[in-house]
């Protein structure tokens, strides 16, 4: 079963994403901030991480910078962000993000992107 880690400080958004992706048969785990995400990634293996750019404590970029290379290589990272300028997008892609989705987004569009990412591997 595909395991997805949803990392976002907004509980309502995590719940919406979880409900949508669980209905599609994915196993979902959640982290409320970057520190929580790093702890979970150190203990468990995930196929995909949906990662918010702007969070308290550690930003999405800081999470990626602190990930061991071995984890980065095994993980598809989809950055979720309200920052939609081309320079922001390029910055996160340069850090190792595989896909980029601007907020606000449709949960079904996100589900389609997850499907695309998983089939691209």
From TrEMBL:
Pfam family, one: Response_reg
GO molecular function, one term: DNA binding
Record key words, sorted: DNA-binding, Phosphoprotein, Transcription, Transcription regulation, Two-component regulatory system
GO biological process: phosphorelay signal transduction system
Lineage: superkingdom: Bacteria
Name listed for the protein in its UniProt record: Response regulator
InterPro entries: CheY-like_superfamily, Sig_transdc_resp-reg_receiver, ST_Response_Regulator
Residues with PTM 4-aspartylphosphate: 52
Residues annotated as domain Response regulatory: 3-118
Organism of derivation: Metasolibacillus meyeri
């Amino acid at each position: 079963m595909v395991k997805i880690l949803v990392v976002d400080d907004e509980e309502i958004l995590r719940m919406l994403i979880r409900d949508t992706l669980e209905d599609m048969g994915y196993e979902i785990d959640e982290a409320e901030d970057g520190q929580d995400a790093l702890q979970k990634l150190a203990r468990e293996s995930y196929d995909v991480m949906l990662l918010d750019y702007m969070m308290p404590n550690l930003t999405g970029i800081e999470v990626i910078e602190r990930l061991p290379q071995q984890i980065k290589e095994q993980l598809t990272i989809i950055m979720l962000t309200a920052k939609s300028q081309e320079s922001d997008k390029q910055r996160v892609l340069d850090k190792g993000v595989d896909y980029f989705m601007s907020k606000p987004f449709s949960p079904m569009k996100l589900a389609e992107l997850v499907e695309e990412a998983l089939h691209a591997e």
